[in-house]
Amino acid sequence: MIYEIDENAKARATGAGGWCLEHSYAQLPRLLHAAVGPTAVRAPRKVVWNRKLAEELGLDAAAWASADGAGAEIFSGNVLPPGAVPLAQAYAGHQYGHFTTLGDGRAILLGEQITPSGARFDVQLKGAGPTPYSRSGDGRATLGAMLREYVISEAMHAMGIPTTRSLAVVATGEDVWRQDGARPGAVLTRVAASHIRVGTFEWVAARRDEAALRALVDYTLQRHYAKLVGAENPALALLGAVIERQARLIAQWMGVGFVHGVMNTDNMALSGETIDYGPCAFMEAYDSATVFSSIDRDGRYAYGNQAQIAQWNLARLAEALLTVLHPQEEAAVALANEALGGFGERFQRHWLAGMRRKLGLFNEEPEDGALIEALLEWMQVAKADFTNTFAELETLGATEAGPGSESGSAKEFEVWRERWRARLGRQPQSAEEAGRLRQANCPAVIPRNHRVEAALAAAEQGNVSVLERLLAVLAAPYDYARPADVAEYRVPAPDGGEGYKTFCGT
Ligand code: AMP
Ligand code: MG
Fold first, then answer.
1. 10, 122, 349, 489: most buried, per Cβ within 10 A?
2. Residues 223-235 as b or e (16 or more Cβ within 10 Å = b)
3. Ligand 1: does its nearest atom lie under 6 Å from the Cβ of 39?
4. Ion ligand 2 nearby residues (CB, 5 A)
5. In terms of pTM, does the model score above 0.90?
């Protein structure tokens, strides 16, 4: 079946406000979605909104300037934009290793916005009220959690890491009840290449609907891997392409110290975008066992486990695809295993390439991996700040590197630095060129946890200026030319972030 996905759509029938919504996902078999609209809220007020992204989407930003005007009405779900046909998506997923039936319990897709350049993006309201998949949940979200997703997702985008985007956060004027009592409610408008998850495939496979599974494979290829449409074995082509994108994505996370925190299979997107910012956070003092999520007691989703977990999740995708990989199960399993077996090497290649760039290395030497490992080992012992160590490799006085720096550690760092300098000397590029490569790959600023928390706390009290300033700083993470401006945002948490916890499901 050919869906109406014309990525080169020329005729763009634009409605009021620049909306140009299509609904290709709604053409997929019925088991994948349920028609449901947002539930109106009492007093919507815009908290933050992404003018630049709106413009990229072709939306008419000017109309939404006021805090309680048309923008607040649309991005709270009170008023549907022209052409919206809202739905919730069905999916399953392995949560902490256990299979569960899920679905959008609090998110509602308005449609797919076709941008002026012909690209297609889901526009989804998160926290927009109950759906047929809400189970016992209230369908709502807290202002703090939605602002957190806004800040971190936009920071990831600015760092050049594939991610869903955040268009707006609107406070609902209603309280939501969580473990810690009443919290202000909010709706986040999320923009994504799509919301197709590993769990979407698991859901269809669990229903044993092979026709629907084939339709979903074709649809996903058309939407995200157009070059592979017409492949001899579409499911195998899809699996291989997703493995490659995930290997690259996780390597990018590792390169900036990002800990996703809840890498359940329902939180892994087939597009290769980072999705579902719940208990995620950036590591400060380097420790590969870093975990922030309060519920991740065993460290399943720790920083250093992320590649392995991604591969585990991809194995669940492969399992879901088995019946369409090959008519004979044994042959299907062999194809799946062969594809999955390539993940480790792909991840390692992306990781090494990324780390070389962070060290200013243009060419390759066999010992580069060991050089990087030696730095990480030193950072782990010295409890050195991950971001600042890479950003300041050239100038770092090792004792400033981290609060836990132990005696002897400065000397060890100098030994490493000499080794690194010798390595730099063996490439044709100049020191200036190496420096530029490093700065383009080592963020000067990341969303430090204490900064994010302060911005969210102020916003909850009605003061958005701290948040706006943080967003402005995070919008240019590789800009080293404004040190005075951002100096305070580069300072690690006093205790290296040790003991910082994030809370899920809010
Ligand atoms: P997450 O941990 O955010 O990936 O969510 C896991 C599942 O729980 C998804 O199916 C969500 O839609 C659902 N969910 C999370 N919070 C709520 C809520 N407040 N009401 C209804 N469903 C929710
Ligand atoms: Mg999720």
1. 122
2. bbbeebeeeeebb
3. no
4. 266-267, 276
5. yes
